[in-house]
Structures are given as structure tokens and as C-alpha cells.
């Protein structure tokens, strides 16, 4: 059975968003039947196969963003006015983290290691870590508009 939401969100090591040790790369040894072939194809050499983790097991961190604008019109004449505008993007300067790295290939490409016989993760490296943000810091812009 594949990793579950409760397994991935319990006993999370420090610095990770989910527990990377609950995931296993499915390994097929040479001569064994390949599971995704419905038992019809033997593996010519040791390799990996498609896993059985359910869809949408992992969810990224919560996203929060508040934009705000203030507009004031000052009439000058019947058909003329000046508009003063202030716009605030990400008003509370809340940091939104990007999704964690959830590609098993990131284990070996970022210096981690996987046991070639069992498929178990020995050193997850960046797999399961959040390495970036997904939004901008607070941005404030002012505008002055003359309508006639």
C-alpha cells in the first residue's frame, strides 16, 4: 500500500514539510514481473516502476493574500476632477511558501540517497523541503489621475 496522508504528516523531521521517509521508490529486481505491466512483463534489469501512492496525498502550505486600495476624488469643476489612489498589494506582508519538493528524483539529484534493493530513502536531501516562496513582498503604489 502507498503512503497515506496521515503517514506523511506524522513524525515530520525538523526542516521538512512532510515526512519523506514514508515514501519508497518501487524497485523491481531483474527477472521479477513488473507490477504496472499487470504481471505480463519481466524486468530485464533492476529498475523502478510506477508507485501506488493515492492521488492528492500531499497538500502544500496555506496561501493568504490581502490587497487593499483607497480612492478619493476631488471635484474641480462640473466635468473635471482629480483622483488620488493608493493601492497595497500583500497588505500585511504575509509570506506564502511554495509547495515542497515532492519529486522522488530530487532525492538523488540534490545529494540524497535511496537503497537500491528496497527503494527506501536513506537521506532525503531536499525531498520534502520548502525551498522558496510563492508571492511578492508588500508593494505600495500611488496614482494621481486628472479627468476632464
Question: What's the SSE blueprint?
Answer:
Layout lengths: L4 H4 L18 E2 L18 E2 L19 E8 L5 E9 L15 H5 L3 E2 L6 E3 L15 E9 L1
Antiparallel strand pairs: 1-2, 3-4, 4-7, 5-6
Oligomer: single chain
Terminal CA distance reads: 70 Å
Main structural class: mainly beta
Largest beta sheet: strand ordering: 3-4-7
Largest sheet: 3 strands, antiparallel
**What is the radius of gyration computed over CA atoms, rounded to a whole number of angstroms?**
26 Å
Work out the strand percent: 15-25%
Shape: elongated
Reading the helices and strands in chain order gives HEEEEHEEE
Q: Which ranges are low-confidence, i.e. pLDDT below 50, for 5 or more consecutive residues?
A: none
How would you characterize this protein structure?
The mean pLDDT is 86. The protein starts with a helix and ends with a strand. A hairpin with a 6-residue loop joins β5 and β6. Strands 3-4-7 form a three-stranded antiparallel sheet, with no helix packed on it. It contains two helices and seven strands, in the order αββββαβββ. With 148 residues, it is mostly beta strands. Helices cover 6% and strands 24% of the residues.
Which descriptors would you attach to this protein?
148 residues, mainly beta, two-stranded antiparallel sheet, 7 strands
Q: What's the quick description here?
A:
The chain has 148 residues and is mainly β. The chain has two helices and seven strands.
Amino acid at each position: 500500500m502507498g503512503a497515506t496522508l496521515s503517514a506523511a504528516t506524522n513524525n515530520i523531521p525538523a526542516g521538512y514539510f512532510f515526512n519523506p521517509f514514508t515514501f519508497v521508490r518501487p524497485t523491481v529486481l531483474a527477472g521479477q514481473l513488473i507490477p504496472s505491466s499487470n504481471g505480463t512483463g519481466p524486468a530485464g534489469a533492476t529498475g523502478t516502476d510506477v508507485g501506488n501512492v493515492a492521488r492528492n496525498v500531499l497538500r502544500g502550505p496555506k496561501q493568504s493574500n490581502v490587497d487593499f486600495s483607497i480612492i478619493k476624488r476631488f471635484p474641480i469643476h462640473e466635468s473635471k476632477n482629480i483622483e488620488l489612489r493608493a493601492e497595497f498589494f500583500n497588505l500585511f506582508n504575509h509570506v506564502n511558501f511554495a509547495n515542497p519538493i515532492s519529486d522522488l528524483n530530487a532525492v538523488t539529484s540534490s545529494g540524497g540517497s535511496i537503497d537500491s534493493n528496497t527503494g527506501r530513502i536513506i537521506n532525503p536531501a531536499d525531498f520534502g523541503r520548502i525551498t522558496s516562496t510563492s508571492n511578492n513582498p508588500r508593494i505600495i503604489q500611488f496614482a494621481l489621475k486628472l479627468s476632464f
